[in-house]
Write a structure and sequence with these properties.
The chain is α/β, with parallel strands linked by helices. The chain has two domains: 165 residues, 3-Layer(aba) Sandwich (Rossmann fold), CATH 3.40.50.300; 89 residues, K homology (KH) domain (GMP Synthetase, Chain A, domain 3, 2-Layer Sandwich). It contains nine helices and nine strands. The strands form two sheets. It has a six-stranded mixed beta sheet, sandwiched between helices. It has a three-stranded mixed beta sheet with strand order 7-8-9. Helix 3 links the parallel strand 4 and strand 5. The radius of gyration is 20 Å and the shape is globular. About 7% of the residues have low confidence.
């Protein structure tokens, strides 16, 4: 009788802002664990999601995107990479095909991938560009950067994800699983629910305010409904007024959108109470 050998792989997601890393992670896991927003740098912390396929465990880590800011890159980004490089089996560099390629971006990609032994190029948003552009970008990036393989996907429309996953499974090493079969994310449910509301604030509130807010979440489970109480902390009264909006319209929109996503995670009807505090 053949003994089943377990495999476990640590996979890092890197890329420029808005490349689609968070959407890719959420859709691979079929579960919302990371913020998705058109604004840059919305992911504050590294978030790991886990998927088990037969005898293989894939552990994906979504990191804050690379931004064109020397001070940030020399501190936060380098520290983020140093934390991960020793345990990364594969680094997926996600590139947004709708963005232009220039010498600066190629140099920055090279700076990132040299920290890892195995690097895959993942060309994202194939649904938004022509086939000619996809092939051209693949040729340019692979001619100047040492990627082992290239994948074409649309993380939003889930195109190419199954093929990508199958290739990752082939590449990850044989080792015992890090997590038991039930865990899917390394963050608490309170953290994830706080992040859902922070995402809605990012998508509905302009300027720098979403970057400043902090959210505390308390959950009270009852028989037929789960009550979620969230305190949204801001620095100034003016910020408080913007989040609440005229006649409370803005906070109402934030709450409605948050509640829908929270109910999907908790799989229960939710009463959501939002309070904005300074």
């Amino acid at each position: 009788m053949k003994i089943k050998k377990y495999k476990c792989g640590f996979i890092l997601l890197t890329g420029f802002p808005n490349a689609g890393k968070s959407t890719l992670l959420n859709n691979i896991l079929n579960n919302k664990i990371s913020i998705v927003s058109h604004k840059v740098q919305t992911t504050k912390e590294k978030i790991s999601g886990v998927i088990n396929i037969n005898h293989c465990q894939l552990i994906f880590t979504d990191t804050p995107g690379i931004i064109q800011n020397r001070k940030y890159k020399t501190k936060s980004l380098s520290r983020s990479i140093q934390d991960e490089e020793e345990k990364v089996d594969l680094n997926l560099f996600i590139y947004d095909l709708s963005k232009k390629i220039d010498k600066k971006s190629i140099s920055e990609i090279n700076t990132i991938i040299k920290n890892f032994k195995k690097n895959y190029l993942v060309l994202n948003k194939i649904d938004l560009v022509s086939k000619d552009r996809i092939l051209k970008y693949s040729e340019i990036l692979n001619s100047q950067i040492n990627f082992l393989k290239t994948f074409m996907i649309s993380s939003k429309r889930r195109k190419g994800l199954k093929f990508l996953l199958n290739n990752l499974i082939d590449q990850i090493p044989e080792r015992n699983w890090k997590y038991n079969g039930k865990i899917q994310v390394n963050k608490s449910i309170n953290y994830r629910i706080s992040e859902i509301t922070r995402e809605k604030i990012f998508n509905l509130v302009n300027k720098e305010i979403p970057y400043l807010v902090k959210i505390k979440t308390k959950i009270k489970n009852e028989e037929k409904i789960t009550k979620v109480y969230q305190e949204i902390f801001v620095n100034k009264d003016s910020q408080k007024s913007i989040i609440i909006g005229k006649n409370g319209e803005k906070i109402k929109m934030i709450g409605t959108r948050s509640r829908i996503d929270i109910e999907k995670i908790l799989k229960k009807k939710v009463f959501l109470d939002l309070t904005v505090k300074k």
